[in-house]
């Protein structure tokens, strides 16, 4: 354990080796291990405890059960505190290296390890790094990543060294490749840049990872971050070279994206590669999180729509006949927009099943219009009268808004625009039926002149469509999780349509 | 420190209090603290070390400098291991509670703390929880959250207790609210559900958080997660009630979204509310990550486009005259699609500045067509001939694909479809100029019949448009980070257009 901050390590309290052994046993006896990373081991006893514990559990050196092990040989803190005692270095070499997949020393650590094993050398150049990595590999680990963060090189030097050997592979990261002149002009000329390299040596092959040098004080824990990131990539099944590439990219982006913390060398930003979900994933207890959010975000206007006075008077059976007739005439016009909107959705569809679903809804609308016409006939409204009725501004506003949304945006935006109608009428139907089922209800079912309307929207056929719509909306959010900006647009469209639905009933009540 | 796994705590190794004090000093002396959370403190000395260290640094009880402190009174592990010794409970009450913003005991911990302070009681019901929370509040902390995860209640019971007091506010989370009949029908009837409650008491006001009971074995570390999540919300400036709501929601979703780990009670999923970025954020060393990804994802086809034989022969000056003429005639037709595509982009625009930018490009296209016509005249192609030239299938394929993409998708998709042309011609211009600048270059500039074309695309005017386009593309990805699915669509469109650009030059070379 350390007492440390961004200015350095102030103190170290070593764990008793017996306790480290118990911690190791607790984890190994219970949890399947996909990769292992060691960090600061401090003393010989602890190093031995870890090495022995791992060998005992996984079956010793060369056991096929041994998971990838990344050994970060944390030796000395930047502030000069010894984090690995001299005799512990020897134990690391003798006991841990033989089961190590990858050891990740920086220059100072590499020099220390080599000197402890009688291979003293100074590492100042790329050639030194390559030869140092080879010597370290000779000490037992399957691979060595010698980190060159403190050695600044020019691109020319890297080329000179690497082009001279067929065994050296160069991986450029963060540097521009060919056919990227437009980016070179927009950015700084990378050939003038200083670069840093990490040298990976394994199986006689050497890979040199090259990237632009970045000056930053947010480098506290860089080595720990890198070794942990590589271990994660190995756990996911990547090979050592690809895991190293992923790990170094992750780490260097973390340095560049860091926030300042503390007065010394602050930590990296480990969160740079993630964004917050704007819609929670469905869970067993909340299977429709997106629809919930939509309704909650617009609860006032949603209530004013689904519990509109038009609905209440309709439920009571007291709705003036002319209001209902005005409503069904305007609904006729609205249905034309609705059918066209599904045609537009069809034109925006990526698959045959989506095209088919749009076509089916269009056909349903056409069928519904026939039912609608005969329903109107019962209320004394002729087909001709339907066609000659002028469209109310509220109808145009709602219908044209849906079409415009479909023109402006993608499929998902149009789906949002169509949802308020589908779900709202479903809600109204269920609400009226639920209220009607209460003792002494204000809702009159038997003998209500509007009973067919209530039956239709609370009935199984329409409610099945509502459920299908719900699932489609939720699936949209899971398949293509929206950014916060996109989510806000969706909520805005949903809220607008909810409001336009309310306006539609205002229009019917006011005979506007 | 603990040796533990999903089956329980196997052993505890207490830190020396002096070392805890040093760790505290390291952090407090260097880093600005926005909120504090305490967990397992184990013994009286450590508890005192923490309380004394905080008071010394922040100026004692009631100091305005004291940040919010959430005290999770971890007392006993699920497996029965003592994690807070009896005398430590007394110190927690006497020394830590007076500087505590919120203490978060579960039933067992609440009973233990109350019994240690002579207020022994059993907590079995919601009434017990409310009275227990009040009694705990009397011990000094500014607020108490008594967690009821182990007490199952019915919604009726919650209503009975809470409706009887005006001081009790009920926050429902994960339960359906009014006007959500459609979700109640699609889900289970929540009134039949068992619920669990957490009781928050502060300043004489009580809030009861109600949520559906979820059965799960992924509950290891639930209390630690909750107290840490609440501390984070307090650090962000939320008040205690809202922080508690956010923390409980986060924690319960973590339980529901957990992956199985270990043979006992596994950990929560702490990652449920995040998704991976599909495009890294721009950094100082990589200011155009999105364009890089696009080019790298399509490097083969991109190279075959920007280093097309048409370009090479044009650079050498050896391109057959009839190929160039065929090209500029078809380019005339292509520009019509291009202008229309920007009109469509204008129709999809959310702001006046976006509408204006589209209009400006449309005007540029119209101007360019005039220049284009006079350029054609120099090559002996009359305006009439331009208009009567049949459109090649390669031209139609490319032009119509852009329009179709604009119809199918949103603004960003259309921007992607338009990028390959803008950036590719910029790349070609820069490449030719760069090659021409080399000694003994294969590119002939002086006396090349196509020098004007090369000047145009490598010139400042066009390159400024390229840079503006680059920035717009990168800004799109930052403002509305795409999901992996959406990013894949973008890459597909970019790759398709790159391929159609290559096809355009194939067409010119083959006089197709």
Shape of chain A: elongated
Q: Calculate the mean pLDDT score of chain A and round it.
A: 93
Largest interface: A-B, 92 and 93 residues
CATH architecture of the largest domain in chain A: 3-Layer(aba) Sandwich
Give a summary of the structure in a few sentences.
Chains A, B: One of its GO terms (cellular component) is cytosol. The structure is a homodimer of 512-residue chains. Chain A has 512 residues and is an alpha/beta fold.
Notes on the protein architecture:
The structure is a homodimer of 512-residue chains. Chain A has helices spanning 17-28, 44-58, 86-96, 107-116, 126-137, 155-163, 181-186, 222-235, 240-256, 289-297, 299-306, 309-316, 321-347, 352-378, 383-388, 393-408, 411-436, 451-458, 460-479, 484-510, and strands at 2-5, 8-12, 36-38, 69-71, 102-103, 143-147, 153-154, 168-172, 194-202, 205-212, 274-276. With 512 residues, chain A is of the alpha/beta class. The mean pLDDT of chain A is 93. In chain A, a hairpin with a 2-residue loop joins strand 1 and strand 2. In chain A, helix 13 (321-347) packs antiparallel against helix 14 (352-378) and helix 16 (393-408) runs antiparallel to helix 20 (484-510). Chain A is built from 20 helices and eleven strands. The termini of chain A are far apart. In chain A, the strands form two sheets. In chain A, strands 3, 4, 5, 6, 7, 8, 9 and 10 form an eight-stranded mixed β-sheet that branches. In chain A, strands 1-2 form a two-stranded antiparallel ribbon. The first copy, chain A, has two domains: 16-176 and 184-257, Ribokinase (UDP-N-acetylmuramoyl-L-alanine:D-glutamate ligase); 289-510, Heme oxygenase-like (Heme Oxygenase, Chain A). Chain A is 56% helix and 10% strand. At the A-B interface, strand 1, helix 1, helix 7, strand 11 and helix 10 of A face strand 1, helix 1, helix 7, strand 11 and helix 10 of B. Chains A, B: Residues 1-158, 192-269 form the Pyridoxamine kinase/Phosphomethylpyrimidine kinase domain. Chains A, B: It comes from Heliocybe sulcata. Chains A, B: One of its GO terms (biological process) is thiamine biosynthetic process. Chains A, B: Pfam families: Phos_pyr_kin (PF08543), TENA_THI-4 (PF03070). Chains A, B: Residues 298-509 form the Thiaminase-2/PQQC domain.
């Amino acid at each position: 354990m350390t007492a440390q901050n961004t200015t350095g390590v102030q103190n170290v309290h070593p764990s008793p080796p017996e306790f480290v052994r118990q911690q190791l046993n607790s984890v190994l006896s219970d949890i399947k291990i996909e990769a292992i990373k060691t960090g600061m081991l401090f003393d010989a006893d602890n190093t031995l405890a870890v090495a022995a514990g791992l060998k005992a559990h996984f079956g010793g050196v060369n056991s096929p059960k041994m998971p990838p092990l990344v050994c970060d040989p944390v030796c000395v803190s930047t502030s000069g505190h010894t984090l690995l005692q001299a005799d512990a270095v020897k134990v690391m070499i003798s006991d841990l290296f033989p089961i190590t997949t990858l050891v990740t020393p920086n220059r100072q650590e590499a020099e220390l390890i080599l000197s402890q094993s009688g291979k003293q050398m100074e590492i100042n150049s790329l050639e030194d790094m390559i030869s140092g990595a080879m010597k370290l590999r000779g000490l037992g680990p399957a691979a060595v990543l010698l980190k060159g963060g403190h050695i600044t090189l020019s691109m020319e030097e890297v080329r000179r060294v690497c082009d001279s050997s067929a065994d050296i592979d160069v991986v450029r990261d963060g540097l521009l490749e060919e056919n990227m002149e437009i980016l070179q002009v927009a950015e700084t000329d990378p050939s003038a840049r200083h670069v840093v390299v990490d040298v990976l040596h394994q199986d006689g092959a050497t890979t040199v990872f090259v990237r632009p040098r970045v000056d930053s004080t947010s480098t506290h824990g860089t080595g720990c971050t890198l070794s942990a990131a590589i271990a994660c990539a190995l756990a996911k099944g990547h090979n050592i070279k690809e895991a190293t590439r992923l790990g170094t990219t992750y780490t260097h982006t973390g340095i560049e994206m860091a926030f300042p913390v503390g007065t010394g060398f602050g930590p990296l930003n480990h969160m740079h590669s993630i964004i917050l979900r704007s819609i929670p994933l469905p869970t067993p207890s909340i299977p429709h999180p997106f629809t919930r959010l939509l309704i909650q975000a617009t609860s006032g206007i949603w209530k004013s729509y689904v519990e509109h006075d038009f609905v209440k008077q309709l439920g009571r059976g007291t709705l003036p006949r002319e209001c209902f007739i005005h409503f069904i005439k305007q609904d006729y016009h609205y249905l034309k927009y609705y059918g066209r909107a599904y045609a537009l959705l069809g034109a925006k569809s990526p698959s045959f099943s989506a095209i088919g679903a749009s076509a089916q809804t269009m056909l349903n609308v056409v069928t519904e219009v026939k039912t609608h016409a005969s329903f109107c006939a019962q209320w004394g409204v002729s087909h001709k009268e339907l066609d000659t009725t002028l469209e109310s501004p509220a109808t145009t506003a709602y219908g044209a808004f849906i079409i415009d949304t479909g023109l402006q945006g993608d499929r998902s935006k149009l789906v949002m625009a169509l949802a308020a109608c589908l779900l709202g009428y479903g809600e109204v139907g269920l609400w009226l039926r639920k209220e009607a089922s209460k003792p002494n209800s204000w809702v009159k079912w038997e003998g209500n002149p509007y009973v067919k309307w209530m039956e239709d929207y609370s009935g199984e056929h329409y409610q099945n469509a509502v459920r299908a719509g719900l699932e489609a909306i939720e699936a949209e959010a899971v398949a293509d999780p929206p950014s916060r900006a996109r989510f806000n647009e969706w909520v805005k469209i949903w809220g607008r349509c909810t409001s336009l639905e309310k306006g539609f009933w205002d229009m019917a009540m006011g005979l506007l």
